[in-house]
UniProtKB/TrEMBL annotation:
The keyword Protease applies. Keywords: Hydrolase, Protease, Serine protease, Signal. Residues 401-482 are annotated as: Disordered. Residues 1-17 form the signal peptide. Residues 401-438, 471-482 have a biased composition (Basic and acidic residues). Belongs to the peptidase S41A family. Gene3D superfamilies: 2-enoyl-CoA Hydratase, Chain A, domain 1, 2.30.42.10, 3.30.750.44. Residues 88-170 form the PDZ domain. GO terms for cellular component: outer membrane-bounded periplasmic space. It comes from Aquabacterium olei. GO terms for molecular function: endopeptidase activity; serine-type peptidase activity. It comes from the Bacteria. GO terms for biological process: proteolysis; signal transduction. This is Peptidase S41.
């Protein structure tokens, strides 16, 4: 690749990182132990001993073991992670949607912290941080040389304390400081509004513990405002994923009872499963059926699903299920392509392993790993075209990503060409006598200037849609897992 992303994985500073996750927090790791390769274990023990006796200064034994486990897991794929005491606490906080921090989802690129997405409504979001920003300094500490965990720890802190982040913004070719006050953030993963009389908009920004309950409450409020809705837009753009049960439930809200929503397949017997639009497959987390309170009209209301390159995992399950059952028209850009399931298993009371245990498949049997959901109608992200979409990272950009498992995959040369053209276009916009002035930012999702939303509304009304003239289906890229 001409533009190679070096991503350590999704990390939200307190928020759930993108991914389809099943939680088994009460369960400990399996008691069965596979036969160990004796010679390699002897080498590991020898290295451990040399470090203990020969290193320039004493090293904590527990840290050595923890680092060894972390290294073993990180070599698998971008989404398998060893959680130490601190990171496990942060992960559990993230699933609740409540945390103290600056409010960004991050990755690593060339040794720097890269902003994948600022969380809507967070201090970072209000401070104007953008996807693609590179954090070069945290207060007085240079990020280069820090691990992901070390960077995260420096950005986290107590409520009402300040942290100064030095940002390098590629599109503006400049660095600048941003002062952010940390706060406890309660992420609202569901937002709704009436776009205009008869047409509603439901945005899900993440699949968290409260997403389904909030969805039910806010959809009921829409129907109370207009009991005869003519159409609905389900907006999953930039939704990085989350909990499996939430994805099944949101799909089931629109689908007939008992149809297949998603299936999974992996090495373990329990990873070979089929999940359907029925309460027993999504209500274990909720106790009772939260969808029972929804209006019956939701099953038949005309529906458009908006997606883009940032729609990943759980949001791909929902869009894939609704697309396969022809329940909705999927519009926008081809999605991220994260088609794997991670299971979290506790090792001790304070540590855990998040490990990839299965691939997931849409109802028709499609694996979208490293490919994504292809919209029924390709729509540009703005009236000017796609200045940013080609530059967004996706599953196939992550080192050691697993393949789809459905045959040979080829590199997508068009993807690299699109990136180069997008960068050239951005440079031209910055060079027209307005040096360092960024191109016009994309409008906020749900606003009156939101171009894809306007096209979705046209689709629901039967009016002409401005279909993209440049976007084409991405081919899956070759499997990079070793």
């Amino acid at each position: 690749m001409t533009s190679k992303f070096k991503i350590a994985g999704w990390v939200a500073l307190g928020a759930l990182a993108g991914g389809l996750t099943t939680l088994q927090l009460g369960a400990t790791a399996r008691n069965t132990v596979a036969p160990l390769p004796l010679e390699e274990m002897q080498q590991l023990a020898a290295v451990f001993g040399m470090i203990k006796t020969d290193y320039v200064e004493p090293v904590d034994e527990k840290k050595l073991i923890s680092d060894a486990i972390g290294g073993m897991v990180s070599g698998l794929d971008p989404h398998s992670v060893y959680f130490d005491k601190t990171s496990f606490k942060e992960f559990r906080e993230g699933t609740t949607g409540r945390f103290v921090g600056v409010g960004i989802e991050i990755g690593m690129e060339d040794g720097l912290v890269k902003v994948v997405s600022p969380i809507e409504g967070s201090p970072a979001f209000r401070a104007g941080m953008k996807s693609g920003d590179l954090i070069t300094k945290i207060d007085d500490t240079f990020v280069k040389g820090l691990t992901m965990d070390q960077a995260v720890k420096r950005m986290r802190g107590e409520p009402n304390t300040k942290v100064v982040l030095t940002i390098f913004r590629k599109t503006e070719n400049r660095s600048f400081p941003v002062t952010i006050v940390r706060e406890e953030i309660r992420v609202q993963s569901v937002r709704t509004k009436m776009i205009e009389p008869g047409y509603g908009w439901v945005r899900i920004s993440q699949f968290q513990d409260r997403t389904v309950d909030d969805f039910v409450t806010k959809v009921n409020a829409l129907y109370k405002e207009d009991p005869k809705l003519k159409g609905l837009v389900l907006d999953l753009r930039n939704d990085p994923g989350g909990l499996l049960e939430g994805a099944i439930a949101i799909s089931a809200a629109f689908l007939p009872k008992d149809v297949v929503v998603v299936s999974t397949n992996g090495q373990l017997p329990e990873s070979k499963a089929t999940f359907k639009a029925r309460a027993e497959d999504y209500s274990r987390r909720f106790g009772t059926d939260p969808l029972a309170k929804l209006p019956a009209a939701l099953k038949t209301v005309p529906l458009v699903v908006l997606v883009n390159e940032g729609s990943a995992s759980a949001s791909e399950i929902v869009s894939g299920a609704l697309q396969d059952h022809k329940r909705a028209t999927v519009m926008g850009g081809q999605t991220f392509g994260k088609g794997s399931v991670q299971t979290v298993r506790q090792l001790t009371a304070d540590t855990a392993l998040k490990i990839t245990t299965a691939r997931y498949y849409t109802p028709s049997g499609r694996s979208i790993q490293a490919r994504g959901i292809v919209p029924d109608v390709m729509v540009d992200e703005s009236v000017e075209g796609n200045l940013y979409s080609a530059l967004r990272m996706r599953e196939a950009d992550l080192e050691k990503h697993i393949g789809s498992g459905q045959g040979k995959e080829e590199k997508d040369a068009a993807r690299e060409k699109a990136r180069e053209e997008a960068m050239k276009k951005l440079e031209e916009l910055n060079g027209n006598g307005k040096k360092n002035e960024p191109p016009k930012p994309l409008p906020e999702f749900g606003s009156a200037e939101d171009f894809p939303l306007l096209q979705a509304l046209n689709q629901l009304k039967g009016k002409p849609v401005a279909v993209s003239k440049t976007m084409t289906e991405r081919k899956p890229e070759e499997n990079q897992a070793q």
